[in-house]
Amino acid sequence: MNSLADLFTDDRRSSDDSARVMDAVVDDRRLAALVGPPLVQQTAPRRVDEAARLTALVDEAARSASPVQIAGAGGAPKMPKRGHKRTDWLNVSFAVLAVAVVAVVGVFGGIQLANASPAASALRALSVDEASLANGEQAIQSGASRIDTLVTEARTEADSVEPALTAIEGYVDEPARGAAVQAVADLRAGLDAVEPPAMPEPYARPAGLNTDDLAEVGAQIDVVRERSDAITGLTEEVRTVRGQVVALRDAFVASMAALGATFPTAAEAEIEEYGQADQSFIDAVSAAAAAVPAAQAAGGLGVAEMTAYPALVDALRLDHERAIAEILAEREAERENANNNSGGGFTNPGTGGGGNTGGGTGGDTDPGTDPGTDPGTDPGTDPGTDPGTGPGTGPGTDPGTDPGTEPGTGGGETPTPGEG
To answer: What sections of the protein cross the membrane (predicted)?
Structure first.
């Protein structure tokens, strides 16, 4: 029998289905080539009959089970016999003691309540208020004493700093020193203006107070509380005055710190100007200048360090002058040695002469062996003994003893010819 595809060769649907079937077969073959043939479905595992094992477990449990009391069976289960329980006398003693304590406390409280009175309660309140007032009075007394201590310490610091400020004048920055001097004056003026509050007399309970009178005790309570309010106001005043003193000292300390910070700069200027001094003097000045701000940073004012600084600067300056003098002396000696090595002797021709007949030509024959140190004061003592050859017959009147006035050419004046 022919298929529909054979009968209807032009049926597109039939041809498409055939193509899809062929494609599926080709795809299955390709898949098998890639991953292998499909796995064969395995059969389900065979179950093992465990009925015999279950029966054995039940039988074993039945053999090991304890006997069970069946409801309705005759007789109650027998309980084990226990011995006679002894009395715990320790616990009994504690219980009796606790009951006794409670009873005593109750009786005492009842007695106190029976004897209590309003006056006694007021007296206890008065005692509490008096204790609080005493604490407040001690606090303001301590604050007032602290103010006095701060004022005394500030005055002492001002007195100790003032000589140091005078000693360093001319050695440090003058504007900073002047500001410190003004700070000392301001500190003293501020301390003079401080007025601590007046302290009241310490409280004391009146000796004639009737502690059994409720009215008197209540009035005394009012007095104590009024004084407590006044003490609170005084405490604020003490705190304010103390703040003023602290502010004055802080301003003074800040000015001193600003002055101390200028010492290293001043030392550098001194070292630069007097740098020919020995290194030990330079190091001493540098260390003294650095010690001032270091002492102030440690909590002091650096008074001792300031006082020691001027003497070290003076020593630096003196050693610088000594070094300069030595340098100048060495240079002068070098110049003299150079002159001595290059200089010759002076020549003293000696021109003095004389004759009895005039026209004498006699001269000083000194070759001039003076090494050059003679300033030219040789008087030229050779009188010139060569007789004149002139025609004059009269004796020469000028003996030729005029000393030479030119340096190194001393000699007598040329003799004049004698007159015939």
So the answer is: 89-111
The C-alpha atoms of residue 162 and residue 147 are separated, in whole angstroms, by 23
160 close to 102: Cβ distance less than 8 angstroms: no
**Phi, psi (rounded to 5 degrees) for 357:** -115, 10
Judged against a pLDDT cut of 50, whether residue 52 lies above it is answered with yes
376 is written with which tokens? 């030219």
Tell me if 307 sits within 8 A of 162, measured CB to CB.
Answer: no
Of 315, 323, 232, 329, the C-alpha closest to 281 is 315
Residue 370's DSSP bridge partners are 346
What is the Cα–Cα distance from 151 to 193, expressed in whole angstroms? 11
Tokens encoding 207: 């000796």
- Domain residue spans of the chain: 4-28, 118-260, 266-342, 346-420
Q: Could you tell me how far CA 239 lies from the centroid of its own chain?
A: 30
Task: Give yes or no for a contact between 220 and 209, defined as CB atoms under 8 angstroms apart.
Answer: yes
Please state, in angstroms and rounded to a whole number, the distance separating the CA atoms of residues 187 and 194: 11
Indicate yes or no: pTM above 0.85: no
Q: What is the 3-state secondary structure (H, E, C) of the chain?
A: CCCHHHHCCCCHHHHHHHHHHHHHHHHHHHHHHHHCCCCCCCCCCCCCCCHHHHHHHHHHHHHHCCCCCCCCCCCCCCCCCCCCCCCCHHHHHHHHHHHHHHHHHHHHHHHHHHHCCHHHHHHHHHHHHHHHHHHHHHHHHHHHHHHHHHHHHHHHHHHHHHHHHHHCCCCCCHHHHHHHHHHHHHHHHHHHHCCCCCCCCCCCCCCCCCCCCHHHHHHHHHHHHHHHHHHHHHHHHHHHHHHHHHHHHHHHHHHHHHHHCCHHHHHHHHHHHCCCCCHHHHHHHHHHHHHHHHHHHCCCCCHHHHHHHHHHHHHHHHHHHHHHHHHHHHHHHHHHHHHHHHCCCECCCCCCCCCCCCCCCCCCCCCCCECCCCCCCCCCCCCCCCCCCCCCCCCCCCCCCCCCCCCCCCCCCCCCCCCC
Structure tokens at 8: 């209807």
pLDDT digits (tens, 9 = 90+) for 284-343: 999 999 999 999 999 999 999 999 999 999 999 999 999 999 999 999 988 888 888 875
Lookup: tokens for 157: 């610091």
- Angle separating helix axes 214-260 and 118-167, nearest 10 degrees: 20
- The percent of residues above 70 in pLDDT, for the chain, comes to 62
Alpha-carbon distance of 353 to 372, in angstroms, equals: 25
